[in-house]
Design brief:
GO terms for molecular function: oxidoreductase activity. The chain is α/β, with parallel strands linked by helices. It has 9 helices and 7 strands, in the order αβαβααβαββααβαβα. It has helices spanning 4-14, 41-55, 69-73, 77-93, 107-120, 144-148, 152-168, 182-195, 222-226, and strands spanning 25-28, 60-65, 97-103, 129-131, 139-140, 176-178, 204-206. Strand 6, helix 8 (182-195) and strand 7 form a beta-alpha-beta unit. It is globular. The two termini are 20 Å apart.
């Protein structure tokens, strides 16, 4: 979750959806201003509490320590290791959050943090996942444009069968699709249910916005998600 207004609207929409049918993640460390970074516990604590209130949740599934490459620049790298993570680990212990993640653009930064944490917390499971982002990854990206350039059926008839074969051979683990309009994601999922009956094709869908959820568009999909169940934690 990102912007506070979006988070508030999402919280209203989530009231319509069974809690066991979705995961919620939110970011900490980087805030409203482009270069407002603060990984210290007082700011982290306030941020998490605010997220819970806006989302109307007692437990957040995933907390992401966001854009940690900037912690190298603004000298907060050790703050993350010595303050942020111990605090999040205590929240995980008390079951206020379920998982801890880190995000960065450079893979080298993520690797560096993981390696240093292995040294600092030997034998402990500290980081549950890492997140990076780019245009070239195994998510079928921006599928709404496939409607425009007449590649919609290419995705269904060529791209997905190929990715399913990679998943079958365990070269990849999950397949996702992304788009800005929720209606496009729903259309693809429904068409795949018809094309591949009884098969589990899409593992996750991703949409992204800053203010587009302010029109309450997510609310209209409440009934659709009520029938969905997530994988066990």
């Amino acid at each position: 979750m990102g912007d506070h207004l979006v988070m508030g609207v999402s919280g209203q929409a989530l009231k319509l959806i069974p809690r066991e049918s979705y995961y919620i993640s939110t970011k900490i460390g980087r805030y409203h201003h482009q270069f407002d970074f603060d990984y210290k516990v007082p700011r982290i604590k306030a941020s998490i509490q605010e997220s819970k209130q806006r989302l109307g949740l007692d437990v957040i599934d995933i907390i992401i320590i966001h854009d940690i490459e900037f912690a190298l620049v603004n000298k907060q790298w050790n703050v993350i290791k010595n303050e942020t993570l111990p605090y999040l680990m205590s929240l995980k212990q008390s079951r206020e959050i379920k998982h801890i993640g880190i995000s960065a653009l450079p893979l080298s930064v993520l690797k560096q943090m993981v390696e240093e944490l292995k040294q600092k917390y030997p034998g402990q499971h500290v980081i549950d996942f890492v997140l990076t982002y780019s245009k070239f990854f195994l998510q079928i990206h921006d599928i709404e444009f496939a409607l425009v350039n007449k590649q919609w059926n290419v995705i269904k008839n060529e791209t997905l069968p190929y990715l399913m074969s990679l998943k079958q051979s365990q070269e990849i683990k999950h397949i996702g699709i992304s788009a800005l309009p929720l209606s496009v994601l729903k259309q693809m999922v429904e068409e795949l249910k018809q094309k591949y009956p009884g098969q589990h094709v899409i593992d996750f869908v991703l949409t992204y916005s800053k203010y587009t959820l302010l029109d309450n568009s997510l609310v209209h999909y409440g009934n659709y998600f009520q029938t969905r169940t997530r994988s066990p934690s």
